[in-house]
Fold these 2 entries.
Entry 1:
Amino acid sequence: SQNSDQMENNMNDWVDPCNNFIFADTNGDYGYINRGKVPLRDQLNAWVPVPGWDKKYDWNGYVPFDELPRIRNPKNGFIVTANNKIPDEDYPFYLSLDSAPEYRARRITNRIKSHLKKGKFDSTSMLAIHSEIISIPAQILIKEIKKINFENPSYGDLQKYLIDWDGSMDRNFVAPTIYSEFRYRLNKKIISGLLDSDKADKMLNAGGRGAPAHLRTLSARFISYIDRNSTEYLPNGYENWTSLFEEIFIESCDYLINTYGNDIDLWKWGNVHKTNPVHTLSDLFPELSDQLNPPKFSVSGDGDTPHNAGYSNVSRFDVVATSVARYMFDIADWNNSRWIVPLGSSGHPGSKNYADQGYLWKDDKVIKMQYSWDVITNNYQLQIIKKK
């Protein structure tokens, strides 16, 4: 493709994966398209597996290419997508229910608007967005937690970690750990009220994609109702959210004390929130597991921050979803572009490049992308020569 028009038209033949595609050219044009072949189907297909032999669940062709969600050169001067829902309720076709809440997109949008207001937005500003770790749900729940007056001063002391906290999921802070345990128990309490305790446990601790995706959607819904002080999801037996929050905060702190001890410094987010990559073959060759498994890293953020580091409820708080690559493209000077991956550029466990980028990735650092051949030939470390 030589320009944005050609790029967008070339997506007509794209089949899978169906995903968000951002593009820009040196003419100053840029855009977004939800690319891929999206089947025309009833929304009944969305929730659970359906009987494929029943014709009412049949696919009836694909969403026409010209009607896929897209935008070109918006007036605000930028495009943001962070796995959030793109089309509004008026969009005529069912695409998917599995989208992330708006939190990450909102934080990115706010960062961009702030830079534009100051009249300065460059490659350094763009790279800094990758390290954005403010959690919007945390900020909402903190407002309610601040209202609690604990009779036991020990819990009041722990509450202080959140009172002046801005919602930054910093690996060096204790507050993110208290908040994350609190939110886990809040979800469990509300879902237990809607279903029962056993079903809540199954939902919270399920693996795969289905249950975690539903939980993410439900949890975001709970946050929105709490934010506007609606008691629709408040379990029976509680006068208000503050009374429920007091009980959950005490339970959360008791759990953290029993699990990590009385030394609160050990509760820092980075001590419990780590990557844990496991090579597929390490179980078959345990004697080689130290070489096969990449190193673990303490990281900031969570699943609601642009610096994405979603964790597991089963082995809390091991990171199970994160940014597999971070990019910054400079269209005016391709050699000024930057990138980083959580492992390395080689898939060979014996290579020095197997996981070397991880040590930079964990600290939000990046490396140069090399585009022009003169830069490549002057900097390459390994050349693969085709056998004659």
Entry 2:
Amino acid sequence: GAPAHKAGLRGGDILVGLGGTEIKTIHDYVKALDKLEIDKPVSIVVRRKGDRKTFTIVPKARD
């Protein structure tokens, strides 16, 4: 059910980009999360078994 899973992300994927921000540290991740808008599509880049894959997710409000 989560937006990331619906977009195609899987366990073991390593997040390397979110919404145009390169993710190298937890600080990069937090900064990228702060920029997300509910229901606005955003690109997410992961490393999966050595390959880079790009997905689009639509952030949703938590219940």
